[in-house]
């Protein structure tokens, strides 16, 4: 059994302050015994929405502070001797370098010409501080709900074009996805078929969709893949506006770890005012192996005879 820590925090447009929040959570969760620590999507920053659309995201993505953010977490992983998963904005023209030549790293390390947009990237950093995996979010959050939510992530973000095969770590084989990917069962089934034991969904869910869909979707992914699911989350108001001004962007929180039976085995709190927090759970791969034997979903699939295999 190995302990994992799932984190919940409120990133703002200040990258240095987000880094110090993450490093403090890292230190506290490592002293509590965590061997791997999971930070949410866009831990580096959530833009304030000021200025011309997209300009702030483009600028912060390419800033020196943003390079320092990844470097700071790499140093932290090494110092504490733990693995880290974290979501960041990646500059396509100066891609974050993945160590090692296997795992399709060569093409992910090549620059892509685009002076405006970013990749929404999920990094897994090993306990020596190397970037061992980089997954670029493939499903972008483009929605226009009548009378409510209107977000077009693809205005600022280039979609990734591949899944990364699961990565062996001391807590298990990690399958990397991000946030809105949760709504699509196909990538989780594909990663499970490739050997994943733990699916990761670093997220920044909206409050309305989170209240209705977050926990049921995470539990469904855990139950149908018979994997652990670790879902770190942004929470609360990201860049509070002065009294009376328009409300800034807000996230749902409820960071959690779900076991392969679908039980929520750790969850960050929902008490306000929100403070950065983490919750711990044991990852028990031997019980997971028994469950997979007792209920052998992967031998019982009727693909490709009556539906396509994934
Ligand atoms: O770009 C950033 O700064 C951080 N990225 C996000 O917050 C992304 C894209 S806007 N959020 C989601 O995918 C929410 C999905 C969601 O809420 C749902 O599926 O219901």
Automatic annotation (TrEMBL):
CDD domains: nit (cd07572)
CN hydrolase domain residues: 1-285
Protein name per the record: Putative NIT2-nitrilase
Organism: Pseudomicrostroma glucosiphilum
Lyase in keyword set: no
Keywords: Hydrolase
InterPro entries per UniProt: C-N_Hydrolase, C-N_Hydrolase_sf, Nit1/2_C-N_Hydrolase, UPF0012_CS
Keyword Hydrolase tagged: yes
An MF annotation (GO) of this entry: hydrolase activity, acting on carbon-nitrogen (but not peptide) bonds, in linear amides
């Amino acid at each position: 059994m190995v302990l994992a820590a799932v984190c919940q925090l409120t990133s703002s447009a200040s990258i240095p302050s987000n880094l110090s929040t993450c490093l403090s959570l890292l230190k506290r969760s490592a002293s509590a015994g965590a061997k791997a620590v999971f930070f949410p999507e866009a831990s580096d920053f959530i833009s304030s929405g000021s200025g011309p659309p997209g300009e702030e995201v483009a600028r912060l993505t390419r800033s020196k502070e943003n390079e320092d953010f990844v470097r700071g977490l790499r140093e932290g992983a090494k110092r504490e001797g733990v693995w880290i998963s974290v979501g960041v904005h990646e500059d396509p023209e100066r891609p974050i370098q993945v160590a090692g030549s296997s795992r399709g790293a060569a093409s992910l390390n090549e620059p892509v010409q685009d002076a405006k947009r970013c990749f929404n990237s999920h990094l897994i950093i090993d306990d020596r501080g190397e970037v061992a995996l980089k997954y670029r979010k493939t499903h972008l959050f483009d929605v226009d709900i009548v009378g409510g939510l209107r977000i077009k992530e693809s205005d600022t973000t280039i979609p990734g074009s591949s899944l990364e095969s699961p990565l062996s770590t001391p807590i298990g084989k990690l399958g990397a996805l991000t946030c809105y990917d949760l709504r699509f069962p196909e990538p989780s089934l594909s990663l499970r078929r490739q050997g994943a034991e733990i699916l990761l969904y670093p997220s920044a869910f909206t409050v309305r969709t989170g209240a209705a869909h977050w926990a049921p979707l995470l539990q469904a992914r855990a139950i149908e893949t018979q994997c652990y699911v670790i879902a770190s989350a942004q929470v609360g108001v990201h860049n509070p506006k002065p009294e009376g001004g328009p409300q800034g962007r807000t996230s749902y929180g409820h960071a959690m770890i779900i076991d392969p039976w679908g039980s929520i085995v750790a969850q960050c709190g929902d008490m306000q005012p929100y403070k950065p927090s983490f919750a711990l759970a044991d990852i028990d791969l031997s019980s997971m192996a028994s469950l997979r034997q007792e209920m052998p979903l992967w031998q019982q699939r009727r693909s490709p005879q009556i539906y396509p295999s994934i």
